[in-house]
Design a protein that fits this description.
Blueprint: H1 10-18, E1 25-29, E2 32-38, H2 43-59, E3 78-84, E4 89-98, H3 99-106, E5 117-119, H4 121-127, E6 130-138, H5 147-162, E7 168-175, H6 181-194, H7 198-201, E8 204-206, H8 228-238, H9 247-254, E9 258-265, E10 271-279, H10 285-292, H11 294-310
Parallel strand pairs: 6-7
Antiparallel strand pairs: 1-2, 2-3, 3-4, 4-6, 5-8, 7-10, 9-10
Helix pairs in contact: 1-2, 5-10, 10-11
Length: about 300
């Protein structure tokens, strides 16, 4: 692997953030702010995001092997990030693709997930308008608590409040090669059995199928693992470092996420990507309000209920 790029000087990051429009600032929480901006407005911040992605993903057994995790999609996706103001540091980030705009300008191949999965038109028609999420990370120094991850989700929720037509979120959630084959097999079987979106799964095909033939604990009749907590405990018993189900996967499932398929990413250290979809209209309102706020949640759900009645 190439040596990871040097950090962008903090004063350069601060100056770039100071130039952002006030509308780019979505959340304030103590020392942290959450921003969302296009690549053209944050060239130095995006350079730092790419460097931090690579560092964080390598530590989890993933990564591109390049000096920074930057690709062609970054140029026209939006970038949502948590800024630690006193430290002048980026704590974590997400990449957002507005699917209706990308399809209009780039077609299916403009979607990052189309490099992992083959889509039928019916799937994209049923999801749209949607936001494709991906490349999420929280840097190591901020992983001691869930604060940065929660702030990222508050930022996504605030973005949706400002653009409520985007009721569906989807994207890849990674299960790294650091997990044993038995654990990866178990997660695939559990998610396929209990958390799949059967009505749409047939509209997706992996470009690199997960073809591991490791026997499944579910198939062998081991503990039922009908809840994600049970599954996580079972995984922790298998893994030498006692890690459970990936935190981000748990987060998607708490929001009501459903799996559409699995594909192996040969360009990302053979990470196993599950294509997950979250329809915020179906998320438990109390859970949604945790990120969006109760008045905003009520308004969001009322808007979509009215649109459904009209339709």
């Amino acid at each position: 692997m190439a040596a990871v790029a040097d950090a962008v000087p903090r004063p350069a990051l601060q100056a770039e953030i100071d130039r952002l429009l006030p509308s780019r600032r979505l959340v304030d929480s103590g020392r942290f702010q959450v921003y969302c901006a296009p690549a053209g407005e944050i060239p130095r911040a995006l350079q730092e995001i790419g460097r931090l992605r690579e560092l964080t993903f390598r530590a989890a057994g993933e990564g591109t092997g390049k000096c920074a995790d930057i690709d062609l999609f970054d140029a026209y996706y939006l970038h949502l990030f948590v800024w630690d103001a006193p430290a002048q540091a980026i704590a974590g980030a997400y990449r957002l693709g507005l699917v209706d705009r990308i399809l209009a300008q780039q077609g299916k191949r403009g979607l990052y997930t189309a490099s992992l999965f083959k889509y039928r038109t019916r799937l994209l028609d049923s999801l749209n308008p949607a936001i494709e999420l991906g490349r999420s990370f929280v840097r190591a120094e901020y992983q001691r608590s869930f604060a940065a991850l929660l702030l990222l989700w508050r930022g996504i929720a605030r973005f949706v409040v400002g653009a409520p037509q985007y009721a569906v979120l989807f994207g890849p959630v990674s299960i790294s090669n650091n997990y044993t084959p038995a654990s990866r097999r178990l997660m695939v079987d559990y998610l396929s059995a209990y958390r799949a979106e059967a009505s749409l799964a047939g509209e997706v095909r992996p470009r690199q199928p997960f073809d591991d033939e490791t026997p499944s604990a579910l198939a062998a009749g081991d503990p039922g693992a009908r809840s994600i907590e049970e599954l996580s405990r079972l995984i922790a018993q298998i893994e030498h470092d006692h890690k459970g189900v990936p935190v981000l996967l748990k987060q998607y499932l708490r929001l009501g996420g459903r799996l559409l398929g699995f594909s192996v990413d040969r360009n990302f250290t053979d990470a196993l990507d599950g294509l997950i979809m979250v329809d915020l209209r179906q998320t438990e309102p109390l859970v949604l309000a945790r990120y969006m706020g109760k008045p905003e949640t009520d308004a969001f759900l009322a808007l979509h209920a009215a649109r459904h009645q009209v339709a």
